[in-house]
């Protein structure tokens, strides 16, 4: 089954806020003295929207989901990791991680705690805040905890997206070798995906 390319509209972060604003625009028209067929459905819709707004915030604060709704990992506990080790070949398959400029602090900490050479976990259905587009997230895991480094470029991630997504539904995530490039900011992150195709084919 093809992996979804974007979030459902109801899962998009601004959606409950937009619905709440739309409902509040009618507060001047809907009053307790209004007809019951108008007041009570409006009140129910307003209450449901507030629940829709609050529940994800509470879930995020408690850290229930791992990965969370943006594809960030809080830890590796409880996850099944499938290693895709480097394959020896004349030409290495190296993929530079996209959007690293937005995550320099996290990459710096990962480098301090885990060194320049470490591993990264690929997390499908990751996204940026306020974006509906799903991407394959890259979490550096060489340090004391996972840290978000960016995303696979769309062209590089497309051949593996569906299979990575299918593994995620089983609670399985793929781990690949990673190299943090540069001695100081701005850092880059290169992934060695030479073993990825074989591992996914054997799964």
Summarize the structure.
The protein has 203 residues and is an alpha+beta fold. It contains five helices and seven strands.
Question: Can you characterise this structure?
Answer:
This protein is α+β, with helices and mostly antiparallel strands and about 200 residues long. It folds into 2 domains: about 10-60; about 80-200. Helices cover about 35% and strands about 20% of the residues. The chain is built from 5 helices and 7 strands. The chain has helices at about 15-25, 35-60, 105-115, 155-170, 195-200; strands at about 80-85, 95, 115-125, 135-140, 145-150, 170-180, 190. Strands 1, 2, 3, 4, 5, 6 and 7 form a 7-stranded mixed sheet that branches. Strand 6 and strand 7 form a beta hairpin. Helix 1 (about 15-25) packs antiparallel against helix 2. The longest helix has 27 residues, at about 35-60. It is elongated, with a radius of gyration of 21 Å. The chain starts with 14 loop residues before the first helix and ends with a helix. The mean pLDDT is about 90.
Distance N to C terminus: 16 Å
Give me the count of strands: 7
Query: What is the residue-mean pLDDT, rounded to a whole number?
Result: 92
The count of helical stretches stands at 5
Radius of gyration: 21 Å
Shape summary:
elongated
Portion of residues in beta strands equals: 15-25%
> Describe the biggest sheet?
7 strands, mixed
**Helix share of residues?**
25-40%
- The topology string of helices and strands comes to HHEEHEEEHEEH
Catalogue the unreliable spans: none
Q: Which class best fits the helix and strand makeup? A: alpha+beta
